[in-house]
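Task: sequence design from structure.
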């Protein structure tokens, strides 16, 4: 069973916004604790207790300790672990109980506990990085580098990549290499064709089972973004897309059709990348199109809602084709080292 974990520094490591991988955050935290003398020089640093305090597996802790040893901040000694000093001959090793205060963790660190499996904690970050690379060519995902980057086992890395494969974001070649991209206009068009065939039928069946208060909240959120363009962002638009294309379809009972819809989400990635790169265009048509579908649902006009959804998907297909073309002229963004460009 995996350890119950807590995140450090308010969030786990992230590919976005230049955040460092988990081992680097642990390294920084321990460095600060040592230099500020919150950790006594005689303290024995062990992987297990540190992993429990930082809410992670032992891999990131092990790497952080190795890097601190290379810096000369901690030392090996005859026993197991490291000493929190560069001069081990001047102290007598002591095995003390670590506290959050010694490591500089927040006093309410227990409220930050995250009991999800390790693969779940890094999945969104890997998905975001892979999705970002798709429009910029053909990439190989190096499994060993991915596991080292996050300080997880190759088994965990394989689990994450397997989930991405189910979403059709990555594939394996004949040599068992994980590959991603390139994202083509043809692939996006095919996904829209599948969605335009299946989503209206799913909405027609799911619509009568939707809660009216939930639909009112969705409509209010859409109207808020229309009235306040400054609130429009890649994140807020993504939430609207999830409302209409996931939550409103969730009562559909055709499992195979639902799986096909879930595996046809490349267009969502293109639009999210476009909004992140260029910004949300003024008078983005998606908002009014969503609003119309929600109005029909609230009035119980489920056939009209399905027709409006189909029209929205057909219009979105052309917009997404143009946006993919725009993205292709932008410079390749900074990507994590486990993404190796092939062409």
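Answer:
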């Amino acid at each position: 069973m995996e350890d119950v974990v807590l995140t450090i520094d308010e969030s786990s490591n992230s590919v976005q916004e230049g955040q460092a991988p988990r081992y680097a955050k642990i390294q920084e935290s321990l460095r600060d604790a040592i230099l500020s003398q919150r950790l006594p020089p005689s303290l024995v640093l062990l992987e297990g207790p540190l992993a429990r305090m930082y809410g992670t597996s032992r891999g990131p802790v092990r790497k952080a300790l190795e890097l601190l040893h290379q810096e000369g901040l901690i030392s090996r000694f005859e026993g197991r672990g490291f000493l929190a000093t560069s001069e081990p001959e001047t102290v007598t090793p002591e095995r003390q109980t670590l506290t959050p205060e010694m490591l500089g963790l927040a006093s309410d660190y227990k409220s930050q506990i995250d009991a999800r499996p390790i693969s779940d904690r890094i999945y969104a970050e890997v998905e975001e990085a892979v999705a970002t690379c798709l429009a910029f060519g053909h990439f190989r995902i190096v499994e060993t580098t991915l596991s080292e980057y996050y300080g997880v086992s190759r088994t965990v890395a394989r689990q994450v990549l397997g989930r991405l494969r189910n979403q059709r974001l990555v594939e394996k070649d004949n040599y068992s290499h994980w590959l991603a991209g390139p994202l083509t206009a043809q692939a996006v068009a095919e996904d829209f064709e599948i969605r335009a065939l299946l989503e209206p039928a799913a909405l027609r069946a799911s619509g009568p089972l939707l809660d009216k208060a939930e639909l009112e909240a969705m409509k209010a959120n859409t109207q808020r973004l229309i009235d306040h363009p400054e609130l429009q962002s890649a994140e807020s638009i993504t939430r609207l897309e999830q409302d209409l294309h996931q939550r409103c379809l969730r009562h559909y009972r055709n499992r195979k059709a639902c799986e096909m819809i879930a595996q046809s989400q490349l267009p969502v990635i293109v639009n999210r990348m476009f909004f992140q790169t260029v910004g949300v265009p003024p008078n983005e048509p998606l908002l009014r199109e969503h609003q119309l579908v929600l109005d029909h649902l609230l009035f119980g006009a489920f056939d009209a809602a399905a027709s409006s959804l189909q029209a929205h998907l057909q219009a979105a297909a052309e917009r997404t084709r143009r946006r993919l073309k725009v993205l292709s002229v932008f410079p390749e963004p900074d990507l994590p080292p486990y993404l190796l460009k092939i062409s």
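The beta strands are 5-6, 44-45, 75-76, 82-83, 113-114, 139-141, 171-172, 178-180, 339-341.
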